[in-house]
Amino acid sequence: MKIENHEIEISNRDKVFFPKESYTKGDLIDYYEQIAETMLPHLKDRPVTMLRFPNGIDDKQFYQKDAPDYFPNWIPRKKIKKQDGGSTAYVICNSKACLVYLANQACITPHIWLSKQDKPDFPDRMIFDLDPADEDFSRVKTAARNLRKLLKEELGLPVYLMTTGSRGLHLVVPLKPEKNFDEVREFAQQLAKYLEEQHPGELTTAIRKEKRGKKLFLDVARNAFGQTTVVPYGVRPKNGAPVATPLDWEELDKPDLHSQSYTIKNIFRRLGSKTDPWKDIEKNAVSIDPAIKKFKSLTD
């Protein structure tokens, strides 16, 4: 394939990656080529960890942080120091050609940092992962509304919503990159703990699964240096090839909505009738200092 003046040698287009539906590696490559324009703003300048499945979703998988030596020179890398010494050369995927190249490397899901390459220690996202204990998605919706009430109505923060393509929902607050990961995570932990206290029968922040029971896990652990999250419009390695999909908040009222509502086969019909609900997320980034003050007065 020739994309943006780069020749990409495509291999094994017919290899089946999603056996239940017989979706192939070629289907994955075509999806990422087609979604690139919508997806790239969410990938731009963020270190990428590749989740690779050389023989499809029913076979071996591995996470790859370092860009291999054989990756072509036109794929940008960013060396980031590890906290325990050494460094990792992460792929920075800012082009359609790079996205297609990664798909050809059997990267089904690109996972991204919550910070950008120029300020890796300072996140510009605060993320809450709503992880249900069972298949009852109505409980995830209720938790999302309760969390939005706290974040937006009580603390004045902008909040964006996304199906994960897996089990739950992500709520994301766009931030100005002023605080380091420890500061942002500590605030997220305080908010999660507060919500747990407000809804003790429904929510938990317990790290150990056996302590959660049937409660929904309010996970803020991704708010840490080097941690990653699925990129918006990323494909998940599950039957049906579901896609992590940004939502408008009113879509939460749809009775048939669930975390895998959108797939590589129906996402373009959706985008043909509405724009990306996250297209302005960068423009709405805020400082969290006012929210921290409001939260203090709320809990004093």
Automatic annotation (TrEMBL):
Keywords: Ligase. Residues 24-278 form the DNA ligase D polymerase domain. It comes from the Bacteria. Coiled coil: none annotated. Its EC number is 6.5.1.1. Pfam families: LigD_Prim-Pol. GO terms for molecular function: DNA ligase (ATP) activity. It is an enzyme of class 6 (ligase). This is Non-homologous end-joining DNA ligase. It comes from Salegentibacter chungangensis. The gene is ligD.
